[in-house]
Amino acid sequence: MTNPTDDQRFREQVLPELDVLYRVALRLTRAPQPAEDLVQDTLERALGAFDRFDGRYPRAWLLTILRNAHRNDQRRSRPDLLAQEVADRLPARGQDGTSDATVTQAMAGQLAPAVRAAILRLSSKHRAVLVLVDLDGLTYREAAEVLEVPVGTVMSRLHRSRRRVRAELDGTGALEVER
Amino acid sequence: MKRWRRRASPLPPEPSCEQVAAVLQAYLDGELGPQDTERVAEHLEHCRRCQIEAETFERVISAIRRQRPAVGPEVSERLTALVDELAPPADAPPKGGSSAEGPPA
Question: pTM for the full model?
Fold first, then answer.
């Protein structure tokens, strides 16, 4: 990009999202350096596609690029995984486009045990919404854009997910409220 | 950004517990419009049962969100520098060394 005006617009859209991009990249790659590399790849791709970006929901747009870049990285680095990935993903992905295996791997080792166990027991489509909203910090509208579902679907899946996590944590005493 | 609730029917002035429960997650996430937010808040002030429900979900959300990895300042600096390189700020010196132009008068 050589036009200073475009550069400025790109900066305005991207700079506020860097932390979110890194957090998501870290969750996907599970290591700091690959996470930074993935963010760099994402930013370069975003810059190349910026003239086609309509300016709405930059976070959702960037996260979609990041997830696609990560998927391509995985295929390049581990071609032997491709067949298995396809086989694994078909039943797990549902209609939300989020790889169940990716999310599951990313969760491992990062969440406190009880919370992690509760999240991992969610179905892939419910877990995807919970992760986008509660871990990645997306608004309902942004999560809907990423998952290509209506906002009402995000809302209902999130409610159901949190109810299930609550049910899992209820017995631990962690959620007791003074009555 | 429009809130999803603004496109749905608004809550009545005195919503029932069921109506509040239906929008409680959006309320806790700050996703309701101002009028609905006010109506839910008012309901919670007077309904101990819904208040306990809201407090419990706040704890659930908090427990989940505590797992967000923090981004260190040095990482933020490196990522910002990367953006500077890809799309230089307006006040950045031109690439490739010194400019033929002199300093501003």
Answer: 0.68
Residue B70: DSSP 8-state: P
> Rounded distance, CA A151 to CA A157, Å?
10
Q: So what's the ipTM on this one?
A: 0.71
Residues 78-137 of A with CB under 8 A from B: 110-112, 115-116, 119, 130, 133-135, 137
Please report residues of B whose CB lies closer than 8 A to that of A53: none
> Touching check for B61 and chain A: CB below 8 Å?
yes
CA distance B84 to A11: 8
Indicate yes or no: CB of A39 within 8 angstroms of CB of B82: yes
Segments in chain B forming alpha helices (H): 17-28, 34-46, 48-65, 73-86
In tens, the pLDDT along A90-99 reads 223 333 444 4
Question: From CA A63, how far away is CA A86, in angstroms rounded?
Answer: 21
Tokens of B62: 């908090």
